[in-house]
Amino acid sequence: xxxxxxxxxxxxxxxxxxxxxxxxxxxxxxxxxxxxxxxxxxxxxxxxxxxxxxxxxxxxxxxxxxxxxxxxxxxxxxxxxxxxxxxxxxxxxxxxxxxxxxxxxxxxxxxxxxxxxxxxxxxxxxxxxxxxxxxxxxxxxxxxxxxxxxxxxxxxxxxxxxxxxxxxxxxxxxxxxxxxxxxxxxxxxxxxxxxxxxxxxxxxxxxxxxxxxxxxxxxxx
Length: 221
Ligand SMILES: [Zn+2]
Ligand SMILES: [Zn+2]
What we know:
With 221 residues, the chain is mostly helical. It folds into two domains: 1-29 and 41-117, no CATH class; 133-221, no CATH class. The protein is built from nine helices and no strands. Helix 5 (136-149) packs antiparallel against helix 6 (154-166). The longest helix is centred in the last third of the chain and has 21 residues, at 199-219. The relative contact order is 0.12. The structure holds zinc ion (ZN) (2 copies). Residues 28, 31, 121, 124-125, 194, 197-198 line the site of one zinc ion (ZN).
C-alpha cells in the first residue's frame, strides 16, 4: 500500500507512514489525563459533528456502514472523541482509504478546535493531521507552539522536519533532524507519557534523522 498524501510505499505491517509520520493502526491510546467532566461539551460536539457530516458529505462520499464500527461517542469526553477521530483518520490514511480519511479529517480537526485546552500531544496530533492534509504551514505553526511551551520537545522537531520537507526546504528539514538528534537522548530520559505513546514514531524518526545526517555527510553538505 501507499501513503495517499505523500505517496510513500508502506509495508503491510507498517505502524506509521515513515515519510509523513502518520500513525497506522489506530493503536494510539487516549492519553488524556486532564479529565474534564465527561459529557459537558460532549453533546454539543456530537451534534456539531453530525451537522457537519450531514451538511458537507455528498451521499456518495459517506463511508460504507461496514467501515464504521460505530463507537458510542456519546459516552466519550471531548478529548477522547478527538483522539478517536485522529486515530480513525490515521488508520484510514495508512490503509490507503483516501476518500474516507479526507471525510474524517476535517471532523478530527474540528474536534480538536473545540477543546478548551490543548496539550503538547494534542498539538502533535493536530500537526500530523495537518501534514496528512498537505497543510505544511499549519503543521509548522503547531511545531512553533510546542517549541514555545517546551523548547526541546521532540514532537516540535518532528513536525518541523516534516513540514519543511513538504515545503521542499531541504536545508531547514536537515536542521530539524539535527536538532532532534541533539536533544533526543536527554528528552527521552524524561519519560514524557506522550513519548511512550508515540515510541514507534520516535524510533522511526530517529532512523530517518540518522540517515539524513549520514546522507549529508556523504554528500559533503
Ligand atoms: Zn504519509
Ligand atoms: Zn498522541
